[in-house]
Amino acid sequence: MAICSRSFAHTYWRGAERSSNGEGMKAKTKTKTKTKTKRKALPQRTQKTQNTPAPARLRPIPLGPRFLQAFHFAAEKHAGQARKASTIPYIAHLMGVASLVLEAGGDEDLAIAALLHDVVEDCGGAPILKEVQRRFGKRVAKVVDGCTDADTEPKPPWRQRKENYLRHLKTADADTRLVSAADKLNNIRSILTDYREIGESIWARFNGGREGTLWYYRALRDEFGRRKGNRLIREYELAVRELEALTQPSVPASTKTDLSPAHGRAE
């Protein structure tokens, strides 16, 4: 009887072991299946990641020692000068023009020309242009010369200078036109800011007065618009449009057409 009990116990234990091993195998099989399923999905995600192009790394336009030298040169030559009827140092305008040139994709030479674009006209005439060429190169000097509407003292009459400048722009190269557009855009934005503050009295600052100044900025818009546009030209056109809207004379209330039903409808 004891032998039978031991035999039964042995048989039962072996059966339980097999059963246990069977369940273990099933569990392992399920685990492997799940693992295989997960592993099948991984290459797809990895492949998708590999096929996604990495964003291009943008590099800033390089500005080296020449740009710093040009800044110091401009600050020295324009020292003591200010914007029209203000205490704003003139270098602020030159920095603004250089900023616009760089934002429009100009390189270091054009940024330097922007800093120096008024140095011939306001700081010594033709001899200064020779110094610019010696220190900063022919390309910079050519653009500075192209942005100058007078290099002699006394200057020719205002209207004559502006008409000559407009004729010059017709044949000017792309470099000169880019710096010129940045210069005029910075100027007209300053006019807009001051006009909102002081109104019509602003025209007393300008040799061309109200009508002459508006004529000049409209003529520049037309000339810049003759060639392929860029962000500066588009911004300039918007600024001229805004200035025209601000300076349009208001219509007196007594002259407005009455559109009420009692008076009929204006045709």
- For the record, the CATH architecture of the domain at 65-247 stands as Orthogonal Bundle
What separation lies between the terminal Cα atoms? 125 Å
Q: Count the strands?
A: 0
Helix content: 55-70%
Tell me the CATH topology of the domain at 65-247: Hypothetical protein af1432
Oligomer: single chain
The computed structural class is mainly alpha
User: How much strand?
Assistant: under 5%
**Order of helical and strand elements:** HHHHHHHHHHH
* Rg value: 38 Å
Regarding CATH, which class of the domain at 65-247? Mainly Alpha
In round numbers, the mean pLDDT is 83
Provide structural commentary.
With 267 residues, this protein is an all-alpha fold. It has a domain at 65-247: Hypothetical protein af1432 (Orthogonal Bundle). The chain is 68% helix and 0% strand. The chain is built from eleven helices and no strands. α3 (91-103) crosses α9 (174-198), α4 (108-116) crosses α9 (174-198) and α6 (126-136) packs antiparallel against α7 (138-146). The chain is globular, with a radius of gyration of 38 Å. The model is unreliable at 1-13, 26-35 and 255-267 (pLDDT under 50).
